[in-house]
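Supplementary Text 2. Reproducibility record for the structural model of the 247-residue chain.

All settings were left at their defaults, and a single model was retained for analysis rather than an ensemble. We include the record here because the model underlies the residue-level annotations in Supplementary Table 4.
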Amino acid sequence: MTENKNLSTQKWYASWFDSPFYHILYKDRDYNEAQHFMDNLTSYLNLPEEAKILDLACGKGRHSIYLNSLGYNVTGADLSENSIAEASKAANETLHFKVHDMRDTCKEKYDAIFNLFTSFGYFENDADNLTTLKAIHNSLTETGFACIDFMNVDYVIANLVPEEVKTVENIDFHIKRYVKQNHIYKEIRFTAEGEDYHFTEKVQALRLTDFEQMMEEAGIYLLDIFGNYKLQKFFKNESERLIMIFK
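Retained model, structure tokens:
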């Protein structure tokens, strides 16, 4: 999916998420909001002290590190070797990181598995979404809970900004967004150190009904649905997020 000559052989998510430019573009994300979300989520789930949590698609591990600071035994897992190498600098006795494909069931079981900030729906093959849900389900303890925090597709499409330029660290990122064949695309073009780059993010436009259908097929029990990080009610057209708690 990328046009950069060195990266074109890989899946787009394997190359773009591994790129240092990905972390530059998204470095100003609201981590306070993310921490409040973690506080709200762990409180709502009433997880036992020292519960084992898997942060699935953890990136550089910022949320894993915060969850660990709350007293939980946390494993951060991500497909990106670069991100895991960076995250591992913060590892300790109760904080571990590993390179892991979310389609694979984990060897050990977890009290909670979190898949946060739209880290789902990237696969070329639709069947991989169901495989991932089954893997999450099979990696939980009998009393464990999982949370998928996804975008609310209807809200995102209604509020899509077709084009913008975002300048971070003297790099002008030219961003174009559009919907095509039930996917939301974000094309990112920029020049850095004299080289031109072009990456395309592509996320499946999965709605609640899609998740419900897949969860039923995977034998998953959907417990609760929230529409934002304050864990308020989900409204199809107004909520920014689609947060699903299941077991």
